[in-house]
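ok here's the first one, seq then struct tokens
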Amino acid sequence: MKKYLPFILVLALLVPVAYSTSTLDLITSQLNNAGTVKIDRNITLFNITITLMDGWHLNETHIHVAKRLNDIPKKGNGDPNIDEFTYNQTHGYSTNCTILIDEDVEPPLVVAIHAAICRIIDYAPDFSQYVNISGSSLKVKNPGNGCYFNSTFESDQFTGFFSGWCIDIDNVIYNNIWYDVNASLSTEPIPDGLLEYPENLDLVNYILNQGYIGQTSPSGGTYTMGDIQRAIWALMEDTQSTAGIGSWSQQRVDEILDDAYGNGEGYIPGEGEKVALILYTDGLQITLIMVPVPMIPVYECETAYIKYFECDDCMTVGGNLTSDTENYIKRILESIILLITIYLANTLFRVFIVKSI
């Protein structure tokens, strides 16, 4: 979820200089310090360096340089239109960036800066690496170690050794032979007609993430690999088999199925769990391997602005803006909440921190 608050920073450069630099605090809409913005100017070149504190990540910047404030792009309602700013970049949630701008505009001029910064508020599954897998091949060995198959899988995207299970007893697969296969993620739509009961894949994913094997069963004994495989066949097949499953108990299988029906509807594996990848080709027994669930950050984003403080080197200069410009400011953003002029490194800036209401 991304959240952008309607703040924007506008700097008006009022005095021509050959070189100037200033470093300013970057403040969030909640008045927390998020980092710094360093602005260097050398003739026509602007170097804008944003450095964020720990916990913050830079998503977007939008910058526009104009001769007059009236030339900053705006929407029909008068708000700044960052989509029409000249310099627009995404930064992939980095912690810092440097943006070089070459503008042959003599001062006075206006530089408008908009930056979206983000915090990680959660993590979510990202199955994208298991979609559109190509160049895949499979080799199995039954019985497996705590699974029906020890499966070796290779593809253009990833390779490894995985726990494997059977979801098809109408065909066969032989040990220690490489097969070219197709791959489909169990949480995505499966090719029509491939499985007898594809609607039960959520229950299969649930069962395979409960760590049943070795746990004590209420009916006695401990759950086995054979109990798990029989439960999977019960969900995925019209007929049953006992081939290659070793010891098992119908009572324990029923307990597993009762748990799945009661708690596994709509189940999607999450952090620290695994998800079933379906492997198949014509005439070959359909199997699955359990692959780790990748997690990605979920960001909440907002617009940051620059905070100025009073100091001996700061000065206020009046009369630099026309009444038309001042009226335009009021019209474009309705409320000016801070207006400060600063004098640093022989450069005079007029700074507007503005907020829509």
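and now the second one, same deal
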Amino acid sequence: MLGTVRTSRLAAALGFVVMVAGPLGCGPTTESGEPTQGWMPPLVPAPADEVAVDLVVARKVWEPSKGDLLVFPVSSRFPIEPKLPPPYRELWPGFQTLNVQPSALPDLAGQLDRLTMLTLQDAARVEGRGVGSEAFTAAFPKAGAVLSLSRTAFSPDGTLALVYGGYSCGGLCGNGSYYELAHTAEGWIVIDTITVWVS
């Protein structure tokens, strides 16, 4: 199924509070009392850290109960351009440049238990084989999920990041999403997710 679905961690976490408190004047609003669009937590500049961003995405999508996670570079072009809000829209040209062709990802090995990094050549053994299929299980007996990641585009000051992740844990278990992240005092957090495919 193709389409665009927007989900927001902030909206999910605060949805009830905003719904109840909004009319009372609580939460970020414009001068006219309308809810502020694109509200962001306080940002903290940081050096571009692709490993940290990739780990945030892996932790967000992966359920360890499904088995080991295989991570590899996205090997195809991005057919769907997401409808990015400012300021993430400004990251799109850099994202496209970084991802013109598949390239090696930073090594996440040892950063997360039960995560295995695959090279582009190893990834070819995964693509086209469903997680849990006989061919997949023969090649990767402990794996229960795969995550293909793009390279990450960062804002010049290192406060914002944009990355694509395609996750699959079986025939009707997976999605492809763009992750909008921000660097706060607590580290990198997912501000919004734009899902472009679901299975």
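notes on #2: Residues 42-198 form one domain. The beta strands are 2-7, 68-73, 115-117, 143-149, 153-154, 160-170, 173-184, 187-198.
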